[in-house]
């Protein structure tokens, strides 16, 4: 069974986000630490841009929803007005038929001409005025309704056109952001795979840390995720039982220290690929594996929520995810179930 903790994912922004992304430097094609730093930093910046873009996109989506609501209200108004016009036409037809019946088949003007006495003449004149007023009123009302209908039809078309334009702009920005992220992730993972194959890390990639300060001493190792393979589950990709909790996230997702501590190990080889182990003051250790890059050095002290690397799919990995372990020693083989351990420390995943 899959469970998840979702925050707004990397969704599109409005056109202003395009300007931000277009201003970013192109991916470096060469090998070496400089290219590695550029790519890692670019992925981190793209994630930050996309996070800002999320708010802009949500505002744009709400505007589009409001626009859709206005367009739908205009459509409902048109339906009502068409029905009203049909009723007015029916009323006009009834008035004309009533005039014909009351006139005995003769127009009212003919009845006046053939009146035999003054009273009959007066009655005919009154009938003509009433008939004229009734017909004129019905025609006038019908014409006003038709003019109003035409104006509202034009307004409804305009509302839908604005909505279609906004939707198209949002879709275009989404495609642009996703394409740039895919390009950067691919380059980042390629260099991670090369490091694992060589069994040598390229060195820490310093990332601009998020401004948020955590009030809790413990946090989940990634902010946006879906839980995949859990502790103790079976599978052909590990020798015995699964020794941690997997967090399914895209390549390049910032990975953060679950709690304050000291980095005791940074490795780049074997089944875990690029991995970081942190020792915490309570004597437990946390491991973060299958990374695409690391942002810390061995021996460095880290604070809760500090970015220590970027997720990937290095080593023995079935796809992009973070493999997270809690251990009683810094070495593999001493792992415990991290989900209840996190819960005991106030973190529900």
How are the SSEs ordered, and which strands pair?
Blueprint lengths: L3 E2 L9 H8 L10 H70 L5 H6 L4 H81 L26 E3 L17 E4 L5 E3 L4 E8 L5 E6 L5 E10 L6 E2 L4 E5 L10 E6 L7 E2 L1 H7 L5
Antiparallel strand pairs: 1-2, 2-3, 3-10, 4-9, 5-6, 5-8, 6-7, 7-9, 7-10, 10-11
Helix pairs in contact: 1-4, 2-4
Quick take:
This protein is an alpha+beta fold and 349 residues long.
Structural features, described:
With 349 residues, the chain is an alpha+beta fold. The protein contains five helices and eleven strands; from the N terminus they run E-H-H-H-H-E-E-E-E-E-E-E-E-E-E-H. It has helices spanning 15-22, 33-102, 108-113, 118-198, 338-344; strands spanning 4-5, 225-227, 245-248, 254-256, 261-268, 274-279, 285-294, 301-302, 307-311, 322-327, 335-336. Strands 1, 2, 3, 4, 5, 6, 7, 8, 9, 10 and 11 form an eleven-stranded antiparallel beta sheet that branches. The chain is elongated.
